[in-house]
Design goal:
It is built from five helices and 14 strands. With 291 residues, the chain is α/β, with parallel strands linked by helices.
């Protein structure tokens, strides 16, 4: 019996050490179900908790009142893979905050008070696979280069925000994109929406339900129209307007070039004429001097 106990002693010691040290560096108001997970969800926090282990990989901060993330946050927690900040009071993300998130795979910023996603918000987060930005009722602007560098991003959620338009470049810069949610936004069916409509039709397989259920309002009377009832012909006027503009630019350029050519020809002819008169005058003087 004694030899068996001796053989089990290292295992028992390791188990005791694990149980004893688990949660040793855990923030006082949080739970740490494993050595690399910190769960501070629903704790009424108004700021990030102190004493978060530096080797944390999963940080759950949902359902609190946190208004901001320090700009150096991910510099300290470089091993972070999963960050859940859903349902807090974030109104903006400071520039550079996420630029060092080299290992971050999952980021949830849904159900906050974000108003815009400016250029370079996520830096070069090349490991990011899933990004949740939905249910931000004041989010009305996404910069065309907001997602630049997110080469591994597969899922992007932008549903139920305040977006009336979105530049196609913001989506076309995501080579790995497989799923995008855009429903529930107050899209406006104007000429700025024409390119996005074309992208949505061509990439409907990336939308959970295609374009079904998505609507946009007419700029004339604000009436909501399902996108499924629209076609490329619905934006024909925008194409004609653009073509006419290009046509006018071409005409103006042609007129400008013609006027410049006429003026150059006139100047050249005047110069030649003056030179000929000067040559004749010189010859006349020479003949008079010889006589």
């Amino acid at each position: 019996m004694l030899p068996c106990v001796c053989r089990l002693q290292p295992v028992l010691a390791l188990l005791f050490f694990t149980l004893f040290t688990q949660g040793e560096n855990c923030p006082a108001t949080c739970l740490c179900p494993d050595p690399h997970t910190v769960d501070c969800s629903g704790r009424g926090l108004t700021r990030l908790p102190d004493e978060i282990p530096l080797d944390v990989r999963r940080l759950l901060l949902a359902d609190n009142w946190i208004p901001r993330i320090p700009s150096d946050f991910l510099v300290l927690y470089s091993d972070l893979v999963y960050l859940d900040l859903r349902n807090n009071s974030l109104s903006h993300i400071e520039p550079g905050t996420l630029s060092t998130s080299s290992r971050l795979v999952f980021l949830d910023l849904g159900c906050n008070n974000l108003t815009e996603i400016p250029k370079g918000t996520f830096g070069e987060s090349r490991s990011l696979i899933k990004l949740r930005l939905g249910n931000n009722p004041y989010l009305s602007m996404v910069n065309e280069d907001a997602f630049i560098g997110l080469t591994s991003l597969r899922e992007l959620e932008l549903e139920r925000n305040a977006l009336s338009g979105l530049q196609v470049g913001a989506l076309s810069q995501l080579p790995s994109l497989r799923l995008v949610r855009l429903e529930g936004n107050p899209w406006v069916c104007n000429c700025n929406f024409a390119n996005l409509f074309t992208w949505l039709v061509e990439n409907s397989h990336k939308l959970p339900n295609g374009i079904e259920g998505m609507e946009c309002s007419l700029p004339t009377d604000g009436r909501r129209v399902p996108l499924s009832q629209l076609s490329q012909d619905s934006f024909r006027e925008c194409q004609i307007t653009l073509t006419l503009t290009d046509f006018l630019i071409i005409i103006f350029s042609g007129i400008s070039v013609s006027v410049a050519a006429i003026m150059a020809s006139f100047f050249l002819a005047s110069t030649v004429h003056c030179f000929q008169r000067w040559s004749k005058g010189t010859k006349g003087d020479e003949e008079e001097s010889e006589e």
